[in-house]
Design a protein that fits this description.
single chain, mainly beta, three-stranded antiparallel beta sheet, 2 helices, elongated
C-alpha cells in the first residue's frame, strides 16, 4: 500500500503504532465510532508480558481475562514495602489478547511492520513503514508502550 500524492484518499483515519493492550483498546473504541483504523505491529498475535490491574480499574468487558485475584497486594517502591488493601487481578495474556482483538476483527487494517518515520504534510500524516510502504492518515498515535518508538504520544 503506497500512496504519496497529497490529493490521494487517506488509507485510514488513525494509524496506531503498536498492537499491545493500549493500542488494541484504543482501536476497539475508535471502531465503535466508525473511525477507520490501521494498526502497525511487527509481531501481532500475542502479548509477551504479564498484566495485572486493580479490580476497580478493570473494565467489565475484560473480566473474562482474569486468571487470579487477591484481596490486597504488597507494593515495593523507593520508600520501601507497603500493603495496599485493594483487590488486584492478574490477567491471562492469551485471553486478554483475544478479548481486545475481537472488536477489531475485520474492522481494522493490520500491517506487520514498524513505523520508520512520520512526515506531516498539508494536515495529513505521511507514514513511512520499515517495509517500504507509505500510508496517508489523519492522525498517528504511538502505542508502542515504554519504548515510545515514535517519541510522541
Amino acid at each position: 500500500m503506497t500512496r504519496t500524492s497529497t490529493t490521494s484518499p487517506l488509507d485510514a483515519d488513525v494509524l496506531l503504532a503498536g498492537g499491545g493492550p493500549a493500542g488494541l483498546r484504543l482501536a476497539s473504541e475508535l471502531v465503535k465510532r466508525a473511525i477507520r483504523v490501521a494498526i502497525v505491529e511487527p509481531d501481532p498475535g500475542r502479548f509477551e508480558a504479564s498484566f495485572g490491574i486493580f479490580d476497580h480499574d478493570l473494565p467489565e468487558d475484560l473480566r473474562g481475562a482474569v486468571a487470579a485475584e487477591w484481596p490486597a497486594v504488597r507494593v515495593l517502591d523507593d520508600t520501601g514495602e507497603r500493603r495496599v488493601a485493594l483487590p488486584y487481578a492478574r490477567l491471562d495474556s492469551a485471553r486478554l489478547h483475544n478479548l481486545l482483538t475481537s472488536p477489531c476483527a475485520g474492522a481494522c487494517t493490520w500491517l506487520r511492520s514498524r513505523v520508520a518515520r512520520v512526515v506531516e504534510r498539508d494536515g495529513v500524516s505521511v507514514v513511512h513503514l520499515d517495509d517500504g510502504a507509505v500510508l496517508r492518515v489523519r492522525r498517528v498515535v504511538d502505542c508502542t508502550g515504554h519504548t515510545r518508538a515514535l517519541g510522541r504520544p
